[in-house]
Amino acid sequence: MVPAPARFLDLVDRYDGFLFDAYGVLVDAGGVCPGAVGAIAAVRTAGKPLRVVTNDASRSPQNAAARFARVGLPIAADEVVTSGQLIAGHVATAGLAGARALVLGTDDARAYAAAAGLKTITPASLGDGDVDAILTCDDAGFALLEGINAALTAAVRALDHGRTVALVCPNPDLTYPRGPGALGFTAGALAMILEAGIRRRHPGAPGFAYLGKPAPAIFELARTSLPPAARLLMVGDQLETDIAGAGGAGLDAALVTGISRWRDGEPAAHVPRWLLDDLT
Ligand SMILES: [Mg+2]
After folding, report:
1. For residue 128, how many other CB atoms are within 10 A of its CB?
2. Considering 180, 210, 240, which residue would you say is the last residue of a domain?
């Protein structure tokens, strides 16, 4: 299959509802992305539901909605589905309730972890303390190098003493758009660095559990509040997370050229149905 060039506004009539990635589609660090205000307005005018499905675990849905409002995007908190919201389900299924968890991320990231039943610890407050879990939620909210050094040290010390450490990455994104033409590393990259560092000493150590896109859980969570038979279009800017995740969830996908550029020969799981320059 080869993706077809399209304009978002021409796709509104084709679907019953829309899932939007946030960074690189609706917003970037510089503000609102081209066409986003008009795209949201067009979906509203058509009377169709939308959800923002974001790997961002650094903001609560309320704070994400407030941020959207500041750049002119009227999106309600209950229309925002984040990878931070997946922490609770993972803690429950992995039996981590009550675990001492070092959280690399913002205050909201720690709030997600605390609400999930973890005893949260910051890099600054860790000291020589022991941890049972490490969560890489975001690149912000802590001193980056000190934070990953503290996490590496705590994980290796635990393994040296025969204890396990649960490694959890709510946001699998490696990079994000900081602004026009500017990229940055985020939580998934921190997880890769940590895992590589831990395995230098403990080659067989278990790796990270990744919660957000492309895993199906976030799409399942978004669908719980949408009509069950709705034909949904996922609009994203990263082949490995947004587009592959949509395919795995059985959804059509549109790639907004941004972090990822379309290349012939991509694996079948990465093939979007549509190619968009932006949301116009
Ligand atoms: Mg994105």
Report:
1. 7
2. 210
If you measure from the C-alpha of residue 67 to the centroid of ligand 1, how many angstroms do you get, rounded to a whole number? 16
Q: Give the ranges where 25-174 is alpha helix by DSSP (H).
A: 36-45, 61-70, 87-94, 107-115, 123-126, 144-160
- Report how far ligand 1's centroid is from the alpha carbon of 149 (Å): 27
Domain for residue 72, yes or no?
no
Q: Distance from the CA of 121 to the center of ligand 1, in angstroms?
A: 28
Q: Is the pLDDT of residue 258 over 90?
A: no
Q: How far is the CA of 177 from the centre of ligand 1 (A)?
A: 8
Domain stops at, among 189, 210, 231 = 210
CA of 18 to the centre of ligand 1 (A): 15
What distance in angstroms lies between residue 33's CA and the mean position of ligand 1's atoms?
11
- How many Å lie between the centroid of ligand 1 and the Cα of residue 23? 4
Kindly report the average pLDDT of the chain as a whole number.
95
Residue 274 CA, distance from chain mean position: 21
Asked if residue 11 belongs to a domain, the reply is yes
Whether 263 shows a pLDDT value over 90: the answer reads: no
Range 214-241 average pLDDT: 95
Ligand 1: distance of its center to the CA of 139 in Å? 15
Residues 6+ apart with CB under 8 A from 29: 177, 178, 179, 182, 184
Find, among 47, 53, 67, 64, the residue nearest to 25 by Cα: 53
Q: What confidence tens digit (pLDDT) does each residue in 153-191 have?
A: 999 999 999 999 999 999 999 998 887 788 999 999 999
- For the question of whether the overall pTM of this predicted structure is more than 0.85, the answer is yes
Q: Please list all protein residues whose beta carbon sits less than 5 angstroms from ligand 1, which is an ion.
A: 21, 23-24, 237
- Distance between Cα 106 and ligand 1 center (Å): 19
Q: What is the CATH number of the domain that holds 168?
A: 3.40.50.1000
Does 68 reside within a domain?
A: no
